[in-house]
Amino acid sequence: MTIDWAHERVLIFAPHPDDETLGCGGLMSKAKAAGAEVYVQFITVGDTADLSPKGQSTVQERYGEIKEVADFFRWNDWQIAFPGDEFHLKLDRLARFELSNMIERHSPLSIAELEPTVVIAPHRTSYNQDHQATAEAVHTALRPSDNRLRHHPRLVLAYEEAADQWRYEAAASPNFLVELDEGHVDDKISAMRLYGTQIHEHPHTRSELTLRSLAALRGMQGGVAFAEGYHALRWLA
């Protein structure tokens, strides 16, 4: 089955800036080229300790990177729901009620406001507490109900990141593959380069070689050159 991305409105939930590119960079490139609308709801961002010579990236640097990546992918809009060190890497302390309500209706990029046809979120088996909290909150916000009263996107996916693969209870291989061409993979890597505070030299889960290798592996599993892997949580055909 193929998807005509030209008619899709895609809403991606990213716990932090770069998660959307790591998980969905190829899909965003492919969908935008076809004419889709793409929106990114970031959950939080703050000063981030890292292994760079200065030891951290600032929130101002992270905002600058987001703007460059947004222009590169030509997102229709993006927003950060809970900015600042009070929330960054602490989403597990935020009540799921508050986080789910933001996702469902209390944001300019909420499901109720946008009525997306496709929703994509992180997978709940991530080792990162912010990813887990986001995944569970999206799951709650998209709970089954009467679709005459609440919007139900036709396709709900969970994206993968290479960093998630080492957990002993990690999810099974993706059951939904999006075929990519080499240009889509190149766009994904180019966007990660714009996240200069986050990309790393190999060996690292956010290196260029890791991203290209994972795309080649998922492509092989689908009998094509490159692909991105997702877990389909709901698919209404």
Task: Summarize the SSE layout with pairings.
Elements (H helix, E strand, L loop, with lengths): L8 E6 L4 H16 L2 E6 L5 E2 L6 E2 L1 H15 L3 E4 L15 H9 L6 H4 L3 E5 L6 H13 L13 E5 L16 E5 L1 H13 L13 H15 L3 E10 L2
Parallel strand pairs: 1-2, 1-6, 2-5, 6-7
Antiparallel strand pairs: 3-4, 7-9, 8-9
Keywords: Zinc
Organism: Spinactinospora alkalitolerans
Protein name: LmbE family N-acetylglucosaminyl deacetylase
Output the radius of gyration.
Answer: 17 Å
Q: Order of strands side by side in the largest beta sheet?
A: 5-2-1-6-7-9-8
Could you tell me the mean pLDDT? 95
CATH homology-level superfamily: LmbE-like
Task: Please state the overall shape, judged from the principal axes of the Cα atoms.
Answer: globular
Q: Total strand count, please?
A: 9
Q: Which sequence of SSEs, written as H and E, runs from N to C?
A: EHEEEHEHHEHEEHHE
Which regions are unreliable across 5 or more consecutive residues at pLDDT < 50?
A: none
Taken as a percent bin, the fraction of beta residues is 15-25%
GO molecular function: hydrolase activity, acting on carbon-nitrogen (but not peptide) bonds, in linear amides
GO biological process, one term: glycoside metabolic process
Organism: Spinactinospora alkalitolerans
Protein name: LmbE family N-acetylglucosaminyl deacetylase
